[in-house]
# Entry
Amino acid sequence: MTQDRAEALAAIAAQVKTCTKCDLYKGTTNAVPGAGNIYTDIMFIGEGPGFNEDKQGLPFVGRSGDYLNYLLNLIDLNRDQVFITNVVKHRPPDNRDPLPDEMIACKGYLDDQIELINPSVIATLGRFSMARYFPGAKISQIHGQPKYDDEKGRAYYPLFHPAAVLRNPGLRRDMEADIKRLLEVVEKVKTMRSSEAAPPKPKDDDKPSGPPKQLSLF
Ligand code: SF4
# Structure
């Protein structure tokens, strides 16, 4: 299974690198499928690669990446402990927002990455990944408020995009307070998952009635 997951994610990355399902690949240097720990509890999803990401083929490098590293360090984590990817895997020209048809074209890759990694918490960075789980919501109103999905055993945790915080330092306090609650959300989901995995408690009907009978020796 361990090998299967690594192989399956490598196969997705290979498909992304040769993908022409939308026009975003045109004029890019590298695809950016995602990077990090494929056995993690925490997956970060941003919007799309920028200039530095396109050059290096890695998500969240450059100033936004430095700030994301700083945020991870605040909770004693580093990049090797989380997985980071984006809604679209090729850089939109001039860093424009990804278009709806581009996000639809790219959706299958992200869906498959999520299914394979099966993170306890998906932390969305910015509006476009947030919209997958909180349609119609405003990031300014819901940041830092987890949504729990009991059926999937997962939480969705909306965060500002690091680049937005760098552009607007007034968001910094909220962003850092939100990230500091991330591990609490992870713990809550782990408890949720382990209680679901535990064998069911006997129902009252299954319990023997009256005092336990003494075993006969004969
Ligand atoms: S952005 Fe996604 S769908 Fe579009 S070409 Fe790149 S990998 Fe394919």
Observations:
- Residues 67 and 113 are 24 Å apart (CA to CA).
- The chain has one domain: 2-193.
- Residues 100-117 form the longest helix (18 residues).
- Residues 2-193 form a domain with the Uracil-DNA Glycosylase, subunit E fold (CATH 3.40.470.10).
